[in-house]
User: Which sequence fits this backbone?
């Protein structure tokens, strides 16, 4: 049943917001502030996911840890969870089912014109749907393809894509692929390889890059509310790392201040999350581009001379003899790919089959984008930089929105101001503009968990680790860095602005700042955060929810411990949280805001929500928040001994107690507000990504990314590894009593084999519906 609810924005006072933040148990404020929503919904039929007043209507799926929302108790936790079996499947509540929409390797496009056909890409992430005018129940579906999981990809590439290539057996010529590292951009180093090996590496890089990017498919909705691809449609198209299939001429290009540094666009890759615009296009975000192409630039915006990016097969020795990941794929493409073209927010128009890279939104490891488009106000885009120590960002257009559905709104993304958030310990914050006139701040790396901060390296270019003497990552002290900047700018530090860091004409300075946005934000005092993986805007009160994946630090960076106190690493809440902020006066263009924590990760006895590593977020039609997790594959179901230095709470491997990645529903109002309820657990070694609800709320799209990433194909012939293992996990009841769990864990994955005998795991997009209503 399709229905529409008109819900006014609700006022929020600083006092009520802070009482909600300080209460610890989320929901105090929203319970008071959302009666309009509750009244509107009492007259509505229930969705498949929630009852008529918006509460989860399903019985939670089995989860390996006690959860506040699982219906159990401290007295029963130990007996109920003494034995637990992990499954290599998408496990849903009783009464729900999933249907495969598209798998890696599925072929789409008009059958009579093979040159317009393509295979569906690898490692699905964000999904989004746009209705097609005059075609009821038909949509454009966009799916991101983020990266290559080397083991299952190499094992299945011949069977799935029909490509036999060097590397699938673990070697390139007579060289093992695992451990291979070569700088292909160095002619002298590359010349030491035989012509055949160089050719084989190039073929591997090309095949992998062609499996990344985005797929745009024409789909139709069936009577049972699932989706089906219109296989032979001429409207399907692909944009991969260095080109496209079924695109018109000159379909790709840059916009904004940095466009002059690369006049053409070759493609897109590392596509993580994204958004659907109110005017019917898709936004797709380029995240970890630095793994495949050179990242750094010189002070004048040119590629950094001597910046090395090795083609490499990385990972620990494994029974498959295959690497865990591949890096430097862009260096094996001919000609090598220019790293400055990647790391942007891209807009894909499904009707025009085109792509724009909006450089006004900055170049960094874009995880996501969320739009706030209201008539009479600027267009605002919130974004997260998914790295340890990454920032929360906001773009504000210079011109105003007249009609959110106007296709000309795309031009608003070409001209505006990019801001980075500075969070203050008093639950307030401000937006710092990334402009040439913004004054530099004195670095304070002592407030960061790792004790170091990445800043612009001058006069050389690139980045340098500025930190405390005790930090293992420090390359230079704060005092010496300030002196180097003063020498570069020939002026006292207190007189310097971002313009002082750029060696270019004034007209190009803004483009250089945007291309190196991450360190420029550090230079003006923006807050390093805890890997902001997704940002979504509440549909009623416009508050902004941020999923921080983890508070741990590394050489890559770390968060500010004043804002993320769990970064100290002494409890199970170190593995992320969902924060929430609201713009002052509910003004999307405000330069100040109020913030707080909505729900934390961690064990129930430790005042945590029972999950780890919050990732993609989405609101349903009743304003409940749905979240999927992004626990690192190498730690899934890791054997945990709470007394062991490497697996005690707060350490990297302790996160293994949370099992496979999962999906949760988190109500934002009522008695259950802020209490996660487990809706699904994923197949082995995968992420559940890209949650998208259909407009009528009856269908849910999910992407199953990298099944089998750690151990490859389950029960693979010729690979000597166990089918299942039993691990003893040291857990705690919600009341804080210790107990042990015998956990059965499958090794590798076969998800989701399309036909008997096809055992290789395939990343897939699925459509979830309530079977009892189909």
Assistant:
């Amino acid at each position: 049943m399709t229905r529409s609810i008109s819900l006014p924005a609700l006022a929020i006072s600083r006092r009520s917001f802070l009482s909600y933040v300080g209460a610890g148990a989320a929901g105090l404020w929203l319970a008071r502030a959302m009666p309009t929503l509750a009244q509107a919904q009492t007259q509505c039929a229930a969705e498949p996911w929630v009852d008529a007043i918006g509460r989860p209507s399903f019985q939670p799926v089995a989860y390996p840890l006690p959860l506040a929302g699982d219906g159990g108790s401290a007295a029963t936790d130990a007996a109920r969870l003494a034995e637990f079996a992990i499954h290599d499947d998408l496990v849903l509540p009783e009464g729900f089912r999933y249907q495969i929409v598209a798998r890696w390797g599925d072929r789409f496009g008009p059958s009579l014109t093979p040159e317009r056909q393509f295979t569906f890409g690898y490692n699905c992430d964000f999904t989004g749907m746009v209705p097609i005018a005059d075609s009821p129940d038909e949509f454009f579906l966009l799916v991101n393809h983020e990266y290559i999981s080397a083991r299952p990809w190499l094992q299945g590439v011949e069977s799935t894509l029909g490509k036999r290539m060097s590397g699938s057996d673990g070697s390139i010529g007579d060289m093992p692929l695992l451990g291979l590292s070569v700088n292909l951009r160095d002619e002298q180093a590359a010349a030491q390889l035989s012509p055949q090996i160089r050719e084989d590496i190039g073929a591997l890089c090309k095949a992998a890059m062609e499996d990344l990017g985005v797929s745009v498919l024409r789909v139709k909705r069936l009577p049972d509310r699932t989706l089906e691809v219109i296989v032979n449609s001429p409207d399907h198209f692909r944009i991969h790392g260095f080109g496209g299939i079924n695109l018109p001429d000159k379909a790709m290009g840059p916009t904004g201040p940095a466009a002059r540094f690369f006049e053409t666009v070759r493609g897109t890759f590392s596509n993580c999350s994204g958004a659907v615009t109110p005017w019917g296009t898709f936004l797709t975000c380029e995240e970890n581009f630095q793994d495949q192409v050179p990242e750094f630039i010189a002070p004048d915006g040119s590629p950094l001379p001597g910046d090395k990016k090795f083609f490499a097969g990385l990972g620990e020795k494994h029974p498959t003899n295959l690497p865990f990941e591949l890096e430097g794929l862009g260096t094996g493409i001919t000609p090598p790919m220019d790293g400055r073209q990647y790391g942007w927010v891209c807009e894909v128009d499904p009707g025009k089959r085109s792509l724009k890279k909006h450089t006004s939104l900055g170049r960094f490891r874009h995880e996501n984008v969320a739009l706030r488009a209201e008539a009479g106000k600027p267009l605002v885009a919130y974004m997260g930089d998914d790295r340890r120590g990454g920032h929360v960002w906001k773009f504000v257009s210079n011109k105003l929105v007249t009609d959110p559905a106007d296709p000309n709104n795309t031009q608003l993304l070409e001209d505006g101001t990019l801001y980075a958030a500075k969070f203050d310990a008093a639950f307030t914050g401000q937006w710092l503009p990334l402009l040439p006139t913004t004054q530099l701040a004195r670095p304070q790396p002592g407030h960061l968990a790792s004790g170091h901060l990445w800043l612009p390296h001058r006069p050389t270019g690139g980045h340098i680790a500025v930190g405390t003497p005790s930090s293992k990552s420090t390359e230079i002290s704060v005092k010496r860095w300030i002196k180097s900047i003063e020498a570069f700018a020939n002026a006292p530090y207190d007189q310097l602005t971002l313009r002082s860091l750029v060696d270019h004409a004034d007209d190009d300075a803004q483009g250089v700042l945007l291309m190196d946005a991450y360190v420029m934000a550090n230079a003006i005092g923006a807050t390093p955060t805890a890997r902001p993986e997704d940002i979504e805007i509440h549909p009623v009160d416009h508050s902004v929810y941020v999923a921080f994946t983890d508070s741990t630090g590394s050489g890559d960076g770390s968060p500010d411990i004043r804002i993320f106190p769990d970064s100290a690493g002494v409890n199970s809440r170190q593995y992320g949280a969902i924060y929430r902020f609201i713009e002052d006066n509910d003004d999307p263009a405000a330069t100040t805001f109020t913030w707080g924590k909505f729900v934390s990760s961690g064990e129930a006895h430790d005042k945590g929500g029972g999950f780890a590593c919050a990732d993609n977020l989405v609101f349903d039609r009743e304003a409940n928040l749905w979240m999927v997790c992004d626990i690192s594959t190498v730690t899934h179901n890791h054997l945990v001994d709470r007394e062991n230095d490497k697996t005690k709470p707060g350490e990297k491997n302790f996160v293994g107690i949370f099992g496979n990645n999962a999906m949760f529903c988190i109500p934002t109002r009522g008695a259950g507000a802020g209490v996660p309820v487990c809706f699904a657990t994923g197949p082995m070694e995968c992420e559940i990504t890209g949650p998208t609800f259909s407009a009528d709320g009856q269908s849910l799209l999910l992407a199953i990314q990298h099944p089998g990433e750690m151990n490859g194909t389950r029960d693979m012939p010729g690979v000597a590894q166990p089918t299942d293992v039993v691990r003893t996990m040291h857990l705690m009841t919600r009341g804080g009593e210790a107990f042990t769990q015998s956990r059965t864990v499958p090794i590798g994955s076969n998800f989701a084999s399309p036909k008997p005998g096809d055992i290789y795991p395939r990343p897939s997009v699925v459509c979830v519906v309530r079977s009892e209503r189909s």
Remarks:
- Residues 440-496 form one domain.
- Residues 1-45 have pLDDT under 50 and may be disordered.
- Residues 195-210 form the longest helix (16 residues).
- The longest strand covers residues 213-221.
